[in-house]
Amino acid sequence: MALIQLANPTRFLTISGRVLPWLWGATIILVVAGLYYAFPGSPGAATNVGETVRLMYVHVPADWLALLTYGLMAAAAVGTLVWRHPLSDVAQKAAAPIGAAFTFLGLVTGMLWGQPTWGTFWVWEARLVSFLLLFLVYLGLIVVWRTMEDPGRAGRVVSVLTLVGAPLLVIIHYSVDWWNSLHQGAGILSGSTDDAFLTPLFLMLGGYSFLFISLLLTRMRTEILGRRLRTMQLGAAGQEA
Amino acid sequence: MTAFLAVAGQTIAISYRVGGGALIGVLFFLSVLVVIPFAVGPDLDLLARIGPAILWIGALLATLLGLDRLFQDDRDDGTLDHLVLSGLSLEAMVLAKAIGHWAATGLPLVIAAPALALLLNLQPAALWTVTLTLLVGTPALTLIGTIGAALMVALRRGGMLIAVLILPFTVPVLIFGVAAANAGVSDRDSFGQPFLFLCAFTLFSLVIGPFAGAAAIRAAEE
């Protein structure tokens, strides 16, 4: 089936309703397996990084998902502005609070990790500050969604702001390379990391990703039904008048 | 081109008329500068060290002042519809409005900066460095702010919302502006690299601002 056929909201509701139980099931299995390998099944104290390494399994996937969500919102913004894809502004509206939550989770777990390893909850350096800015941009987008009543117009206005913020993703990604940073660089895929750390990390990354897709589809379904309800109420109010 | 200059000139003229915001910006700039020494204490060495930062924050906040009405007033009295139909492309119109707004509110800040820098105990070298960075950097602040001003057409809200939306995007300008300005205060900081980055951000926002602003107005007007 072509992706374009999913553009029909009714068909989207049917298909997403069918796959959602499987997605939620995959989420639960991956997160439970990830948590097992992260806690009882992981060498924590035995390594030179200590028990705090376990924070990696909740911190790194949250950061990746925070960036991924924004990337998806930016792609959907192009869909809204260029093709007027009827589902892309629904996807944007549904994704913004999820992305904000992942960013918040990334910031909080990062701060909790920073205290024992760097000796401070917060430093004003490139990676942390750019992530804080990403959080502020997410909140700004949510505010714009909440300010405008007409969802179609709100979608196009938010899309402009989303695309203006997209370069932030590049800055966040390269911030550890461009500036002399306290935050360690991206070394997870460099081959030097032991499998005992990679297994729970990738399980948790999979779990977070499936959690994101499940939440996104659930929220998109709610949003579509909410818009239908709004149209019906407006129609009913028009008939009474 | 005539229409472009007319829009820019009209924006400047309106800012200086009764009810315009041009001089309020400078007054606000002065007020911020006067308030901060009361908060951090009158230590002249400290003020000289953080002086460039104070001037930049003051300029940033003063730039945002009045920006939320830039397109809203035109929308309310129907001028915006005429501008959209005038044949001048929407991008050029947004750029003209931004240039007019900067000339009316940004430029006075730059001109006032050397005089106000004396209050913060800045030495001549630091004083001119800060003024130069403000001259190069305030257009970037105005152009980024123009995107927010265009969003306000659709949002139909004023006041602080534009600050919430725009301030995160002005951070790079602030970082490189203050970094370059600090070169005038201490010899350890380099001037060239952050100043070039500041110039780059101004040129970047010169491209992004009109296009994003025009897209936001289009989204609001249809």
Question: In terms of topology, how is this protein built?
Answer:
The complex is a heterodimer of chains A (241) and B (222).
Chain A (H helix, E strand, L loop, with lengths): L8 H30 L17 H28 L4 H31 L7 H22 L3 H15 L1 H12 L16 H46 L1
Chain B lengths: L1 H15 L5 H19 L3 H21 L7 H5 L2 H7 L4 H30 L4 H32 L5 H22 L9 H30 L1
Helix pairs in contact in B: 1-6, 2-3, 2-6, 3-6, 3-7, 3-8, 6-7, 6-9, 7-8, 7-9, 8-9
**What count of helical segments of chain B does DSSP give?**
9
Low-confidence stretches of chain A: none
- From the N-terminal CA to the C-terminal CA of chain B, the straight-line distance is 26 Å
Major sheet details of chain B: none
How many β strands of chain A by DSSP?
Answer: 0
**Cα-atom Rg of chain A, whole angstroms?**
20 Å
Mean pLDDT of chain A: 84
Structural class of chain B: mainly alpha
Shape of chain B: elongated
Largest interface chains and counts: A-B, 22 and 21 residues
Q: What is the helical fraction of chain B, as a range of percent?
A: over 70%
> Main sheet of chain A, how many strands, which sense, barrel?
none
User: Roughly what fraction of the amino acids of chain A lie in strands?
Assistant: under 5%
Run of helices and strands of chain A? HHHHHHH
Secondary-structure element string of chain B: HHHHHHHHH
* Count of helical stretches of chain A: 7
